[in-house]
Specification:
231 residues; six-stranded antiparallel β-sheet; alpha+beta; disordered N terminus
Amino acid sequence: MAQAPLQPTPTWIREHNRKVLRELQLDSTKWLSVPRAIRALVPVLGSALLQAAAELHKRMRNPSDAMPAATRSVRLRDGLQISHVITRYPPPAYWDAVPLESLIAVMGFREINEGDGNVLRCWDFVDLQCFNRWLSALAAQAEQAEQAEQAKQEPLIESAVWFEEALVRYPRRRREKITHYTKRLSEAMQRAPVTRVWPPDTMRRRYHERVAQERKTAQEQRIARKRRRNP
């Protein structure tokens, strides 16, 4: 049975690859070296270099949403260059088996010993914009997890007590509508360690009750002052 002829690579893919190769050679602001990316992950993940390298490698080889990556390589013999610099985008298939230790390169490159004095020196890169978006998302997740952990450790405040304190901490702005003000209080309560978060309707009702009570108290005080002046 005759095999079907291979389909040619679409033109737009070839053009995109050429654009990436030019960027790697001329525009360093679009690509980030893998060793620098790993060191940027360490404080966000709170892990060691090897664990950060494993996380980045997994993200780069994710079959559903892989981070764009590329590699440049040159062949050396006894320390002397014997080939042109070759840029590959995307990286070759053997990238799946790259040892994680080799990605943590102090000199910025990793080397593959091919025997007979031949060494393949490689520089690996990831897309800078994609990496920054991923790093920001990881930082936001870490911050949310830290806030949730702190909320578990902090003692919960009674909702009514928090409400009284919030009226002083978040005073009503000039000409601010009651609906907007109580919504702002409700949003602040959602971030606070309280026993129960009041919905906006409950917050609005409690605020109206508080205003009515203040007016009643003020009226009673005025009546008491009049009685003292006119016994």
